[in-house]
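Late entry, written up from scratch paper. The run itself happened at the end of the previous shift, but nothing got recorded in the book at the time, so transcribing now.
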Amino acid sequence: MSTALIIGDLQRGITGNYPFTRQVLPPDSELLRSFYEAGDAFHEGSGGTELDLPVADEDVVVLKRRASAFAGTDLDLVLRARGVDTLAIAGVATSAMVAATAYDAADRGYRVTVLRDGCADGDQAMHDFFVDAVFPSRGFEVVSCADWALYSA
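Output as recorded:
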């Protein structure tokens, strides 16, 4: 089993304009530090912008064009070439990018984990609804960034 970490839509243009997104920067940054020690990380971002998270030389940055990180990108090809079968997903917004990417990943046969505190939504009730009800009902594991880092190490 090989796992990839997808963190989406945390470029400065988003984190600078939507205050709710900033709450995920500390746990996602800590998660990346832990993940760098264990393997590769995958980051999603829009073209022409800088990510608001550290990016290492060995990371793969995929230019995302739609809500799902898979739509219109070569992400699936990159993951399959590396033998990845499990994804951990974080980023903003929970009800948009995270949900779309998780659904798309599951449809493509990946096992999916959503990182509860690594995601945020403009509506906290919507975030809670997705991580407490929707994602578990779809068979996705939902854990904290810290617990996932311990589990995946």
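Residues 25-38 form the longest helix (14 residues).
(Scratch paper discarded after transcription.)
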